[in-house]
Amino acid sequence: MGPVRFGRLKRLLVGMPLPTAQSRHERLDRPTALAVFASDALSSVAYATEEILLVLALAGTIALSYSLPIAVAIAALIVIVVSSYRQTIGAYPQGGGAYIVTKDNLGTYPSLVAGSALLIDYVLTVAVSVAAGIAAVTSALPALFGYREALCVLAVVGIAVANLRGIRESGRLFAAPTYVFVVTLGALIAYGSLGAIFDFIPEKPYEAHPPGLEGVGLFLILRAFASGCAALTGVEAVSDGVPAFKPPEAHNARVVLAWLGVILVTLFLGITILAYDFGIVPKKDETVLSQLAWHVFGGGPLYFVIQAVTMLILLLAANTSFADFPRLSFFLARDRFIPRQFATQGDRLVFSNGITILSGLAILLLVVFGGDTHALIPLYAVGVFMSFTLSQSSMVRRWMRLRSGGWWWRAGINGVGAVVTGVVMLTIAVTKFTHGAWIVVLLIPTFVVMFLFIHRHYEAVAEQLSLDGLTPPPPIENTVLVLVGDLHRGVVRAIQYAQALSPQAKAVFVETDPELTRRLEEKWGKWGMGVPLIVLTSPYRSLLGPLVEYIDHLRAQGDNHVVTLVLPEFIPAKWWQAIMHNQTAFLIKGAMLFRRNVIVTDVPYHLKH
Amino acid sequence: MGPVRFGRLKRLLVGMPLPTAQSRHERLDRPTALAVFASDALSSVAYATEEILLVLALAGTIALSYSLPIAVAIAALIVIVVSSYRQTIGAYPQGGGAYIVTKDNLGTYPSLVAGSALLIDYVLTVAVSVAAGIAAVTSALPALFGYREALCVLAVVGIAVANLRGIRESGRLFAAPTYVFVVTLGALIAYGSLGAIFDFIPEKPYEAHPPGLEGVGLFLILRAFASGCAALTGVEAVSDGVPAFKPPEAHNARVVLAWLGVILVTLFLGITILAYDFGIVPKKDETVLSQLAWHVFGGGPLYFVIQAVTMLILLLAANTSFADFPRLSFFLARDRFIPRQFATQGDRLVFSNGITILSGLAILLLVVFGGDTHALIPLYAVGVFMSFTLSQSSMVRRWMRLRSGGWWWRAGINGVGAVVTGVVMLTIAVTKFTHGAWIVVLLIPTFVVMFLFIHRHYEAVAEQLSLDGLTPPPPIENTVLVLVGDLHRGVVRAIQYAQALSPQAKAVFVETDPELTRRLEEKWGKWGMGVPLIVLTSPYRSLLGPLVEYIDHLRAQGDNHVVTLVLPEFIPAKWWQAIMHNQTAFLIKGAMLFRRNVIVTDVPYHLKH
């Protein structure tokens, strides 16, 4: 039997079910939390510098040196956003995702925009991170370059399975790589800087651009900046996930976010400056980070460690979305904006439906865009900055409403954050619009409309099912009919069952051939067990027509009257044997499905072989 | 709602249902019967000559003149088979298909071989005839040559729809083309012969082959003969379809079969001789018949009439299988060798399932073999000659058993038929084995094994369901449970229904969160209507686990005890709204399906919007 076998496979992949009581223990200490929630932001240093250089390279090598001021601007942006989000954590220790915070302060519609933007960006985080992670692999092992699409899909599937097992195991599994990444990249930057200073690594800085913008253009510089802003994605993950921290949750989360900010700025600036100093130019089949590591360490084991750990942290980043997407889905489902199935925890205490949908969409994106990071980047970050802006505007509103101690400087910090991220969002949407951002700009309102549509449906259902104003109705009168075709053990059992339901039960036979009626009536004395037999004629040999007509006639007795149609059905020993039997029961159920006050009951008779 | 819309489309295509009483009037007079049942055999003259020439051409043009002796041999074969089958019609006025006749005289196993061979050949008749019919079109209109596959599929679909409408309309629809075909081909042969005799059409006979077989080989000549034997396919259709004739059925059928033999031999020999005399050589994109008609009539209107009517009669030939395949399926299903659905007449008095399967398989063959007649021919005729042999051996056995008047010469005629067709069958199987006949040689026994397997299943089911030896069992004891989750109008209705089924009904609630239990218990006083509430705890948040456990506990009371599980279910106003709701009922039914003595009953609550 199918379901049982599937069940076994599921257990093997995702483990045995966990009791609800275990829920509270699935919490993360600070170092593990950094690994799980900060990896998204940290990992983006693996591609952010490259994306800046790729845009600048469109104007020729002379434009590359603009990477330095752009990187500084982005570093400043990181500081602003981190400061702003530390306040959100303090105010929302129960988890301050943009959806919750916006809903709380700006109301439903803005919160749906935030929710829509975030869902889209979680999918993109998976796609971009996995694509970049596989790029780290194919940079070190060029023979695999042709298989990157398949490798990307494989990686997403792997992460999805790990997540279906549950969050603590994920934490344990992914903790080490983050730290190895931070340490080895720190070592790369330190050793590279020493090499540049003491001249044991050859330098070849980008040629300086003459003052002014000739040959480059402000739009291109803004586009390069917009691409580099991918470095900020994931900064919000910490504040989304506060309840997953060990107590005191808020405090631990703020500390982790501060660590994250410091490490992120250091790594991003370090890599960008070294790339400048060593004259690294983007290539189609090798990442900038790979070129940089090769330049500093040569082809030694440290180079391969960096590539391996870069891949791992990027997969970890993808994993962040596997914590956040289902969590946000849960909130949206709880508020009835998406189907309620997303609010159900699976037997491993994870939101299995969210995990499955997320991985499906990410795989779709990876296949459509050929597993290419650069092709996906223009879609990325619009949603994140949209949610940053909404989230921080909400905080401003909150401080102004509460007027608690220090509200004015707190509102100031969040206000700066809101304005800056709002401007950045517009910059990204405009400069990358034709390269793919238009897809996201269209999708965000589409999702909002869908949310509202689903919400209206649930409201309508709730209203129709509500007990308000209803008084307990009078008892139901039930007419029991048993449908008889041939006469065999299964039918005898059904007749008995109908009798058990009601002593007034009747049997119904649809006549297609009078000879069959005669034979049935002959045997009815012995096997009818006193149940009266009603024969319906059928000139067109249809079973359904006369039956439906008769039942409709009975139903006409009023809404308090119910017809129960008992169907004898034998269940073959093997499921595939069903194709050798008429599917009459199925047809009858279909015909009755939209008829009020008719209840169809199968009485199964199980065959042994 | 889907089913209703489909129903309307079906009515438009296949017409309104017909009452059973109309069945007897769906009979064919002689001329119409010739059109319906003889078209298969007659139409094969459109390709039989060409298939002979194609094989001979492999040995060069010097071998082509062998077509004459081969055609004479095939003509003799036609006479033998027709004589043999005229006797079958006399002996089996109720319809003497090879399956029936073989079963009656040689027993089950040989009859299954015949049945298997025939089913396969009916499918091939459709595929070959349609491919050849489309070849007639593309010969006249070369621009369509590239679309022949699509045209073939379209033709099969068209014939299938016509047949789903019912047999008399088919007869009327297809009567004229057969006669136009016979008359125009007769005219072609007459005018061509006159032209050759009085030298107003240029002659260019194939060069004569020197005595002996040098450069040709006996095997090749036998293969050419085997290919030409396609001319005989369809001769048996008349004896299969005797009950469709107007009374006196047998007499009319024998007369029609005699006409058929005379016309078939005349047309086949005429075309082969003219092709020889005018030196027609097969071409890839124009049929031999098309070349011949063009040579005799030039590009005038008569040429196009011949091409058009050739196409029509070939489609008519395909149509023959649409009468025979469902009829044989009915016999096999009635005898429980194939699924019983094939024994059910649809509401237009036709066997819709047989028609659908036949057209599906024919389309598959046409697509796999690219709509090419020559590629399909090697698969063809093995099955037909297999059934000829079995059918005539059966007749020999019958005469020897009955010893009625003239039994010895009757047995002699059928004996010659059996031996000759048996030898031909082996010749076809051997000479065309590697070109595709192997597929059929493998399929025939495969089908026989499948038939036996299905038969065994039905026997087992019948035995298990049989009332023999059963005494009317004691009444069933029924425990009624209603599953309660939330409390709403649908649930209240289900509780009431459970009460109507049994005053001892109990409500069951699976606790995943004690808070929800508390809230439910608060409201139970008002809405429970006196039904006791049983709370089952669920440490793993699974609804199914504790429920199944409880039900299994109740089931343990013995085979005379049944548990009825009542499920409240609300039915959305639109079917697609179902995706927004949990499919719990579906899961529960799945879990209960293979459990004995559990009956699951949905109580639907219909939403209005």
Please characterize this protein's 3D structure.
Two copies of one chain form a homodimer. By secondary structure, chain A is of the alpha/beta class. Helices cover 63% and strands 6% of the residues of chain A. Chain A has 22 helices and five strands. In chain A, strands 3-2-1-4-5 form a five-stranded parallel sheet, sandwiched between helices. In chain A, helix 2 packs across helix 8 (167-197) and helix 13 crosses helix 14. Chain A is elongated, with a radius of gyration of 32 Å. The two termini of chain A are 14 Å apart. At the A-B interface, helix 18, helix 19, strand 4 and strand 5 of A face helix 19, helix 20, strand 4 and strand 5 of B.
Summarize the structure.
The structure is a homodimer of 609-residue chains. Chain A is 63% helix and 6% strand.
Entry keywords:
homodimer; 609 residues; 5 strands; alpha/beta; elongated
Q: DSSP strand (E) fraction of chain A? A: 5-15%
Provide the spatial order of strands within the biggest beta sheet of chain A.
3-2-1-4-5
Class by alpha and beta content of chain A: alpha/beta
Whole-number average pLDDT of chain A? Answer: 87
Low-confidence sequence ranges of chain A? 1-6
Q: What is the N-to-C order of secondary-structure elements of chain A (H for helix, E for strand)?
A: HHHHHHHHHHHHHHHHHHEHEHEHEHE
Number of helices of chain A: 22
Distance between the termini of chain A: 14 Å
Q: Tell me, what's the shape of chain A?
A: elongated
Work out the helicity level of chain A: 55-70%
Rg of chain A, rounded, reads: 32 Å
Largest sheet of chain A: 5 strands, parallel
Task: Give the strand tally of chain A.
Answer: 5
Biggest chain contact? A-B, 73 and 74 residues
Counting copies of identical and different chains, the oligomeric state is homodimer
